[in-house]
Amino acid sequence: RRSFGRWLLAASVALVLGVGLFAYRNTLLNQTYQTAYGQLERVALPDGSTVTLNANSTLTVPRFGFGGQTREVRLTGEAAFSVRHLP
Fold it and tell me: Residue 76: which pLDDT band, with cuts at 50, 70 and 90?
């Protein structure tokens, strides 16, 4: 029973550290832009495209630029995109 308790404690600590590192990794690799109620914000993306965020919206983009084939962003709310087709 004693070794089971230690194993359970070690597994719990590993789980908490894993979740914490995953959340930190997401924050480290992505840049988030957020607007408040009644606020508009224009954001220039690394590829030369621009995004105008509407009020109460959140945009998450890769901090270190886009990949070779795709340009993926995560949007919650409303935005107008002006996409530059060729970098």
Answer: very high
Cα–Cα distance for residue pair 42/80, rounded to 1 Å? 9
Q: Which residues 6+ apart lie within 8 Å of 49 measured at CB?
A: 71, 81, 82, 83, 84
Please say whether the dihedral angle defined by the alpha carbons of residues 18, 24, 30 and 32, taken in this order, is positive or negative: positive
The pTM of this model reads 0.67
Pull the structure tokens for residue 12. Answer: 């719990």
Q: Report the C-alpha gap between 80 and 85 in whole angstroms.
A: 15
CA atoms of 25 and 4, how far apart (whole Å): 31
Q: Say whether 65 sits in a helix, a strand or coil.
A: coil
